[in-house]
Write a structure and sequence with these properties.
Elements lengths: L3 H20 L1 H16 L6 E5 L15 E6 L2 H14 L3 E5 L12 E7 L8 H11 E12 L5 H18 L7 H7 L3 E7 L6 E7 L3
Parallel strand pairs: 1-2, 1-4, 2-3, 4-5
Antiparallel strand pairs: 5-7, 6-7
The protein binds S-adenosylmethionine (SAM).
Length: about 210
């Protein structure tokens, strides 16, 4: 975790960790919970990795009886995930780790999940390539992501506002995540537009067999 952008992202999330759940409480209840449920109902396999686990908002949706591993590069976010896991009695192995440099052997997991993460990973294609490496051939990668809207006016506004939002809140708002998934060499299986204009997407991809 040496490059400047990665260190900045890490300290940004360490800083916002105490307020993160509160900041998102309303939208979490109104829509995110439903989308998380939708994503997790599609996860297959016995050994699953969650990257960018944050404060552990996905923990309640983990399927019982599967072996879960979850990573994040912010110690402060992880602390909260740890507390949530204890409170909910969820069995998950939580580790401090950079998505861009995962410390797992090739083909370890049946599936990998990330929700609202690739908007803030400094090099998203590198991170997605790491997911491709650590899932088994044919394994799933499931993402819930806000992305750049593919409309001329809103799209260019998002491009312009991106540096400001990045500094204030942490994420990029101009990521083209579907394209990045393809660039990482993954096969797209399903893309569903969840918010108007395709602002939020459920993306299901697969490592080639
Ligand atoms: C917007 S939060 C989303 C948290 C959680 N997935 C959720 O749905 O609430 C993004 C998370 O990704 C983590 N993250 C960003 N870049 C990362 C990287 N390169 N390696 C590991 N974690 C990263 C941040 O620390 C943060 O916890």
């Amino acid at each position: 975790m040496e490059d400047k952008a990665t260190i900045q992202t890490q300290s940004r999330y360490n800083r916002i960790a105490p307020f993160y759940d509160l900041m998102e409480a309303i939208v979490e209840r109104l829509v995110f919970q439903r989308w998380r449920e939708m994503l997790w109902s599609r996860v297959r396999g016995e050994r699953v990795l969650e990257v960018g686990v944050g404060t552990g908002k996905n923990l309640p949706y983990y399927r019982q009886g599967i072996r879960m591993t979850a990573v994040d590069m912010s110690e402060r976010m992880l602390e909260r995930a740890r507390r949530r896991a204890q409170k909910l009695r969820i069995d998950v192995e939580l580790q401090l780790m950079d998505i861009q440099n995962l410390e797992f052997p090739d083909a370890t997991f049946d599936a990998a999940v990330a929700t609202f993460v690739f908007c803030s990973v400094p090099d998203p294609v590198l991170g997605l390539r790491e997911l491709e490496r650590v899932v088994k051939p044919g394994g799933q990668i499931l993402l819930l992501e806000h992305v750049r809207v593919n409309k001329p006016l809103i799209g260019s506004l998002m491009d312009r506002l991106d540096p400001l939002i990045l500094r204030l809140a942490g994420p990029h708002i101009k990521r083209r995540t579907v394209e990045n998934v393809k660039k990482a060499g993954l096969e797209i299986e399903w893309v569903e537009e969840l918010a108007p204009g395709g602002l939020v997407k459920l993306i299901i991809a697969r490592r080639a067999l």
